[in-house]
Write a structure and sequence with these properties.
Blueprint: H1 2-28
Protein name: SPW_0924 family protein
Length: about 60
């Protein structure tokens, strides 16, 4: 009985580890190239804030 429970727990841990490795590999793999553009270089595309020409205070 104890050997069966240990074997089942080991199987669950092994499946979880394989899933985590697969998710990590897919997250950091290059993304497919979109037509007319290049592939993104990472997971997140960072953009800075857009400058505005407004003058005055925010209180209105």
């Amino acid at each position: 009985m104890v050997g069966s429970a240990a074997r089942e727990l080991l199987l669950v841990i092994a499946v979880a580890a394989v899933g985590l490795l697969l998710a990590t590999a897919l997250a950091f793999a290059p993304w497919p190239v979109t037509p007319g553009g290049s592939a993104p270089s990472g997971l997140v595309d960072l953009h800075g804030p857009v400058a505005t020409d407004r003058t005055g205070s925010a209180s209105g």
